[in-house]
Amino acid sequence: MSYTPIQLLENWILRQASDDGQAWLDTQREAVTTGEPKSLYMAFGFTPRKIGKADLQLTERDINDAAEARPGWQPQTWTIDQAARVLLLMSLPSEDDAAWFATIEKLFQTAEVREQICLYQALQLLPHQELFDDRLAEGIRTNIQTVFCAIAHCNPLPMELMQEPAWNQMVLKALFIGAALDPIEGLDQRVNPDLARMLIDFAHERRAAKRPIPVELWRVAAPFADEIALEDMKALYATGETLEKSAIALALVSTALDEADAILQTDPEIAKRAESGSITWREIAQQAYPS
Amino acid sequence: MKFIDPHIHVTSRTTDDYEAMAAAGVAAIIEPAFWLGQPRTNIGSFQDYFSSLVGFEKFRAAQFGIRHYCTIGLNSKEANNEALAEQVMELMPLFLAKENVVAVGEIGFDDMTAAEEKYLRIQLEMAKEVNLPILIHTPHRNKKQGTYRSMDIIEEHEIPPHMVVIDHNNEETCEEVLRRGYWTAFTIYPKTKMGNERMVEVVKKYGAERIIIDSSADWGVSDPLAVPKTGNLMLERGIPQEHVELTCYKNALAAYGQSGQFEESDWLSPEPIDQRSLFEGNSVLRGGQTPRVDKPEDDRIIQ
């Protein structure tokens, strides 16, 4: 049987929280249903003290249930207070969308870092998501990497909501600040010529400055590889470390260009591994950004 | 020896101050919400100020190895702008539960007006509701009356004295504040509130129980090293080390520890860096700066 996100969150918290914490949460959720913002503001603030901050203990099954309840939802990195805070947010009456939006925006405006992370991840489960495309675009302007990642990583909303310029900035900025691309949902589906152009320019500029180029870049740039990109890839394929070579091979394999084949032939062993599927972007990201 | 400065307005201080404080042994500080030297004209200024106390300033202090906590409140001067004060009362619930908030404060009297009393009472009730300690600012003018009146009001609200720190005491007020059972704090602030030689005499006379020493260093001429300087002077003048530890560290820990948000383990055995909660990329360092250079590189080369 399938569950709703609310049922899943309730089950996970019930499994893990103390009786006192659970009773406190039930009372607060009840108070929040009256729509009085103060109840939500206070409860939202106090949640970690009452429920704790432990990581959510999830099984494979839970993670599958989550993806079924809300496509794209990946609660693997969530904490128990985060889950409880999302339940509080979901208890707020939302029929009056202007009042509801004003209350949620106030929380965003006054949030400290952990609260911002929670709010950006919560949006995917809340109503009126269409009201938040500006908020997401503003959110990725942050200099705080953890907040950036709460928007960009394991979150289906950017893919679903963001206009193309904001989406492109998010991907480019991830490379700038050293955040992985692989956890960005919809990365391959939303590749576009403008984004590839920016990434190809960025790579070329980095190479001219003799600075390293993030290896995942080629995944997004390759579908629109031009002469410059191919020249850079050829040079790096000849001189790069194994990880860089693997990434470039995988990127080249994904294109159908004749030039790509010629470059791949210069190191047939890595090319073979890329063609056979024994190298994946997930593994490349994990090696590039060891946790 | 480690020190806590439980009352310092570091948002007004420089990184040099932070470095000197850390070098002098200041491990943890509390920054009470206060006046910025000029009146705020709209609620947005309060909101951003409170946000910086729970956010960026906490991060900035951590960059220098100092644990930063704060108190949230409407100070007495600005209580006199009632239209704005009402909005601050609505804003406070959003901040009282943030993770580094250890008290409601600093609140109390400045001019001793009716409006100041009104917002003092409202905030006392708020502190009761969320079970947080209270930090009371006592007035510069008419200090004795202001101090006694503050305690009378606290007692009317049936708040136990162990939950309250009365700050900015002097030789005239401390006996009564101690007698009534409150945490009795002294601000070592040049030329005005209390000098550290006088402080030594106070501790000699009254002992160390429930006495707390702080700097209140802010945007005025003041000294962010007031607590370690006073601690060292006390040792020099023959006050036993255990009394220095109580007045410059342990009493503040006990008083504000009642919030549940102020624990020695936070700074004695810090958690390993948690990359999920760092302000990464928003460092106080500017492009290319390194915090510590053990082996200077060739400075003709710009990487």
UniProtKB/TrEMBL annotation, chain A:
InterPro entries membership: EboA_dom (IPR047715)
Name of protein: Uncharacterized protein
Lineage: Bacteria, Pseudomonadati, Planctomycetota, Planctomycetia, Pirellulales
UniProtKB/TrEMBL annotation, chain B:
GO MF annotation, one: hydrolase activity, acting on ester bonds
Extent of Basic and acidic residues compositional bias: 292-303
InterPro entries hit by this protein: Metal_Hydrolase, TatD-like, UCP005295
Location of the region described as Disordered in the Swiss-Prot/TrEMBL record: 278-303
Keywords from the UniProt entry: Hydrolase, Metal-binding
Top-level taxonomic group: Bacteria
Assigned protein family: Belongs to the metallo-dependent hydrolases superfamily.
The protein's name: Hydrolase TatD
Native source species: Bremerella cremea
